[in-house]
Amino acid sequence: CEDCGKSLIGECKLHGPLIRAKDRVIPSRARLTLPHYLTLRVLELRAGNQQILGVFAKKVIQKRTQFGPYVGQLSTKLTRYDESRLVLQVLKDGGKYFLDTPNEDCGNWMMFVRLARNQEEQTLVAYQHCGEVYFTTVKPIEPHTELKVWYAADYAKFMEASAVFIKEESDVCPLPPVAKESVDPWICSSCRSTFATFALLESHQCIHKDRV
Q1: Which of 150, 173, 206, 210 has the most CB atoms around it within 10 Å of its CB?
Q2: How far apart are CA 5 and CA 13, in angstroms?
Q3: Residue 137 in contact with residue 63, Cβ under 8 Å?
Q4: HSE toward the beta carbon, residue 63, CA cutoff 13 A
Q5: Per-position pLDDT tens, the chain of length 212
Q6: Are strands 95-100 and 89-92 parallel, antiparallel or unpaired?
Q7: What is the CB-side half-sphere exposure of residue 8 using CA atoms within 13 A?
Q8: How many other C-beta atoms are found inside a 10 Å radius of the C-beta of residue 150?
Q9: What pTM value is reported for the model?
């Protein structure tokens, strides 16, 4: 304590505690990369103050607008799985890797884009180009509309997933499943589509849960 000239363990009983000044909170790398015409909104607050975020347009975004590439870490295993986000993989140097984003400091804003549950709410399509993943708008996006993504047809085959959309009468219409040769597939009990990994199956099942 500089007032009484004593070195103390804890606060000074005579002059009281110090006034603590906190550093300014710096946004994560992912949040800093958000384009100026997009914004993040908290959609849900779960236990432990876990925020479920969505990306929304602040102005009209034209059709065929490309975003990317998606920034993440290449990994042979999926270390971070979120049922509301797409599972992404890329082909590099002859190997197939997950495009993983363990935390906000290792990715960009595209990690916040949630998957589309049906064709009506889909605004983006995900695809691979030159070893990178990009999102492109499939229709004009109006202000206050959430950006939601699903696989392009060719990328869905690469991901061994179904290119699924839901009709107005809520019938699920998947493309024919991709055949598996080396491993036993995970099979969806609702539509019999097959998937290479359990994580991809779980991501697919969210569509059926929404339909129910």
Answers
A1: 150
A2: 13
A3: yes
A4: 4
A5: 888 888 888 888 888 888 889 888 888 999 999 999 999 999 887 776 777 899 999 999 999 999 999 998 888 888 777 788 888 999 888 888 998 887 889 899 999 999 998 888 999 999 999 889 999 999 999 999 999 999 998 898 888 876 655 333 333 334 333 333 334 556 676 676 666 555 566 556 555 544 43
A6: antiparallel
A7: 15
A8: 24
A9: 0.67
Question: Which ranges constitute the DSSP H helices of the chain?
Answer: 29-32, 153-158, 198-211
CA atoms within 13 A on the CB side of 173: 9
Distances (CA, A) of 90 to 38, 106, 178: 26, 17, 17
CATH dotted code for 29-159: 2.170.270.10
Domain boundary assignment for the chain: 29-159
Residue with tokens 């996006």: 141
- Do you find a cis peptide bond into 27, omega within 30 degrees of 0? no
CA 112 distance to own-chain centroid: 5
Q: Show the 3-state SS of 106-125.
A: HCCHHHHCEECCCCCCCCEE
Which residues neighbour 100 within 8 Å (Cβ) at sequence distance 6 or greater? 72, 73, 74, 75, 78, 79, 80
Tokens coding 202: 């779980």
